Amino acid sequence: MNTIINLIDYFENSLKLIQLKFEEFSVRHSLTFIADEKQVNLYFSNDILFSKLTPAFGHLESSLCIESKLDVYVLDEKCVPISFLSPPWIYDVSEGINDVWINDDSKLKILHQPAKNTLIMLNLLSNKAIYWVKSGHQIPYYESSAPLRPILHWWMSSMGSQLLHAAAVGLNNTGILLVGKGGSGKSNTAISCLNSNLYYTADDYSLLSFNPYPTAFSLYATGKLLFEDVHRYPFLNDVQSKEADDGLQDEKALFFLYPKLQEKLLKSFLIKAVFIPKVTRSEFPKITPISSSKAYLALAPSTIFQMHGEKERTHDNIVKLLKEVPSFLFELSEEPIKNTDAIFKFLTGK
To answer: Do 155 and 303 meet the contact criterion of CB atoms below 8 Å apart?
Structure first.
């Protein structure tokens, strides 16, 4: 108990120091967005961090003020050196450790990533969070595609929502989740919906809530594709952020869909089904019912692995979802338009 109390004190002392530094800024960099009737206020120490981490949230930006809200302070070493925060734990950067859980309970989350020069903290008693990174220039493209994911996962989970590793597409009142491991066709199918009668809610990460029915909410207006597939989607030419020669070969092309494609972005819908796509050489797509246990294997492992903590709650939410909506194997056609047509017919019955 003393350890927890000391860590909470450490968080609060760090927050006070950071807030004092932020008050010195003549130019304020901030953004407020709302997802699933929950408000998140982001405060940045400089324009580099702001430009790296806010484009994904642009479609959710709001000037409203609601009761459920989280304040996140995003800063780098130029604002407050890590030595000023004086972490009360021992770590060795030379060991190349990615994730060090300092604390993971219902009151306080602290995730230290020495190899990434990142410190992430959330106080669930005060709904305040700190995201410290050594330099905004070191933030990788995949962090820009799904910014602040650990903090948002922890906080949304505490508020009854669940972040899933799933794409989401649909119509104004109903839609489907697309789940599966990398290479299953999930992202390509979701991106194809931007050029169809369907709307796009998410690529990699969807927010799930039971209101009381299973509902998908958008969190990030981004998409990613293998560079070798980009030429198949010319309508994305104006929204591509990352080019093939920007980095390593195993990285993907990144697209910021807002504001250029805002008319195709859907903030939420009731979930009608979970689809597990499978790449085939078929001329026509095929939709076949499968068991919830098979759907669980397609959705749960990657979600639990990628979300950092709250494993039991994540498991319970996925089981609840798959009990309430049916699951289907979605054998894909080689022609994207036939896949989007199949989803449209499934949702409309036409």
So the answer is: no
Output the six-digit token pair for 221.
Answer: 């207006």
Identify which of 4-13, 45-54, 112-121 has the greatest average pLDDT: 45-54
Q: Maximum Cα–Cα distance for the chain, whole Å?
A: 64
Distance CA(321)–CA(270), nearest Å, equals 12
Report pLDDT for 2: 44
Question: Residue 91 pLDDT > 70, yes or no?
Answer: no
Predicted TM-score (pTM) of the model is 0.94
- Domains of the chain (ranges; CATH) run 2-142 (no CATH), 162-348 (3.40.50)
Phi then psi for 212, rounded to 5 degrees?
-85, -5
What confidence tier does 115 reach under pLDDT thresholds 50, 70, 90?
confident
pLDDT at 251 over 90: no
Closest CA to 275 of 341, 346, 337: 346
